[in-house]
Design goal:
Helix 1 packs across helix 5 and helix 3 packs parallel to helix 4. Strand 3 and strand 4 form a beta hairpin. The chain is α/β, with parallel strands linked by helices. The protein is globular. The protein is 31% helix and 23% strand. The two termini are 22 Å apart. It has a seven-stranded mixed beta sheet, with helices on both faces.
Length: 188
Amino acid sequence: MLALFVQAASADHWTTELRDRSDNPTTYAVFRLAPGRLPSGNFTHVRLTKPGKVDLEAHIGVKVRGASSIAHEFDLLLLTASVAAACRRANQDPSYADVVAHAEAKYYGGNLSLPIGRAVVGLATDCGMTAPLHSNGRSVLVTNQNSSTVEALIRHYGVTFRFLIKPSNSFGIYHLVQRFRAMLNSAP
């Protein structure tokens, strides 16, 4: 998913660069294998820059503090570079209020069940990503399955749904990249 996000950024003339925990350029990618804290470990992220826009950082598998103070894992998280740097310096998780964009990924071998939709709505509610607060579409559920019930539920709460995303579905991948481009266009 991060590669598709970088593809979207490149299509809109963002400069992307892999960086280490100290925010130094690197060619060696180290990604989390499980949810973790932004300030812990020497994991890489992608720095995004574009004239006229605030510098951004894209992370995978990072925890974000919701309104309830509960930490939620964000599969793909976009923050301003200044917020990410402040979190690293202060050894704290980013707040939901600092999220520029977010994508939740769900890969399943079977049907996408309603509890998944409920979990996404819970995350979106606690992290201020429900309509009308987040009606500009900066949150997306990405899944390899389809479910009209889950789609109806999460869309009601202002979360975009991109389904059947897998390497064999170029149409689905195209639409996900377009969604990521829209997210970047609405970034500060």
